[in-house]
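Table 4 source record.
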Amino acid sequence: MSEQYDDIINMPHHVSQSRPQMPRYNRAAQFAPFAALTGYEDALDETARHTDAKAELCEDDAAELDEKIRLLGARIASEPYCRVTYFVPDKHKSGGKYVTVSGNVRFIEEATGQMVFCGGLRIPLRDIVGISL
């Protein structure tokens, strides 16, 4: 078997006179692993991501929440400070997450059903589950 290549085994490596030699980085890239399933890992991560279901408030909790919103509305001229917990629906799958924010309320828009904070954040009243004054 070794006799088969005896005539070329000790010949010098050919170097082209007309073309530049490829850099090592580019030569190594030819042998890099190939990702046949691009996006598969992201799809797995998205499937495994946990979302919460939106809880429905009982009548007593809903009445208490309405009362707190009414109190905020009565003190709206002084831009009252409060902490609001609300539900944010997920854009990609069913469910969502609960977020708590704090700040001064600028006004409550009855027409659109939103609470507007001084920083510009708008929270739909139907998504609010808790208010701490």
